């Protein structure tokens, strides 16, 4: 699957919306902030840009490309023929008696060539060629994994940004209570102790906000690493985290996952192991070394041709151990495929369970919990201004509304993370149920 198709497959995990400039930014004079001069650290980041950066700079993909290059080198080398051997022999020279010099010497110049039999070269080339295919499938599997992880990390950044926004609103709401509370205390409608209680609530809200900001920094750094950066040199992440739809049935996802590169690579792996088995079997067939040479006799000044043929006799070594090893390696590949298939189904099942649970939780929170918490808070807030509720009751109502919003946010992040995982496993967009979008 080409990179653009993979990108579209995982972009479906989030409905991305381009960042729109605010009214203040639109009204800002162009001379004070030219668009071309805006630094990358201030530029909003969309999911498509994050995925493009990850594909271009992620070191795991670079390593996968090098694996393909290494496999291609082995394939080229496997096609090489054995080199011929050139030899020069001098007999009956530098001895004793009449053989002290070179007068009676015999010189032989010969060239020899090893001829591989049993289709050794063909089997070697087939194994190396299958190795290139395996490396390419592994690169595609790595590509899908990087895209899925980038989408999940991007969802985490969106969720962390929204958490900071929710907690910031909570802290601001508590701060707005201070003037009203002071007025009530001055009027004798509330106890001075409530001022201390409000300060404690404000401190807790600030602590939670600071913690959320730290988590946002961590999420941004994790995303930056996937994009091949040492630090988060990008602005606010932009995307719609709030759109969810009912997930499809698990059996249909399992069927689609059969085309995952993690499984399809085993077709090439088993082809490679079969070729290695044929190479091991061919190794038991003796090779022939042919030679042809020219011999000169100094004593008579005569010369003649010399032809040689040598074949090893396979008495002690018939490569039986190598053949057995290759057979076991093939059986191991078949077992590894079954293991990978089971692991893929289990991972897909866990992601589907998370996706469905998150969707159900979002549905419940949006249809019942959040509206009820918001209605309760608004009623208590009005009643507090009229003196019918205490500060503690108001803070409890506000805390319940904030907790419900944060629960929804966690469920949304879980939904999109699980969706990205599923799309990474099946290698295509998940067809979410139409008409059931929340």
TrEMBL record:
- Family assignment? Belongs to the outer membrane factor (OMF) (TC 1.B.17) family.
Q: Which UniProt keywords apply?
A: Cell outer membrane, Membrane, Signal, Transmembrane, Transmembrane beta strand, Transport
Give the species: Xanthobacter autotrophicus (strain ATCC BAA-1158 / Py2)
PANTHER family on file = OUTER MEMBRANE PROTEIN TOLC
Main localisation, per the record? membrane
Stretches of the chain forming a coiled coil according to its record: none
Task: State a single Gene Ontology molecular function.
Answer: efflux transmembrane transporter activity
Question: Which interval of the chain is the signal sequence?
Answer: 1-24
Q: Which Pfam families match?
A: OEP
Cellular compartment(s): Cell outer membrane
Stretch list, region Disordered: 23-43
| Name of the protein in its database record | Outer membrane efflux protein
GO terms for CC?
cell outer membrane; efflux pump complex
**Transmembrane stretches, start-end:** none
Q: Which Gene3D superfamilies match?
A: Outer membrane efflux proteins (OEP)
